Amino acid sequence: MSDIFICYSRKDRTLAARLKQRLQAEGWTVFMDEHIDAGHRWAEEITNQLAAAQAVLTLWSQNSICSGFVMDEAHEAADRRIIFPARIEQRALVGT
Question: Could you tell me the domains of the chain?
Fold first, then answer.
């Protein structure tokens, strides 16, 4: 299991992947749902990885606030007090 779980919208995958590389270069283990092994159930794998993570880096954008998956993962991380939100757009996210 990983130290950090990156929570992001698929539309923001390029930036999420760059952040993953940077974090790994610093020695962290990082989970992104980009490569779930064949034979694993996607939802089960996400649930297990999220439960095991020590921190959840949540990438907030116009894309992610519209994603039910991102919102669910962020709520769980917030409940566990392991959420680290990162705004990845200049525009205001809510009420614009």
Answer: 4-87 (3.40.50.10140)
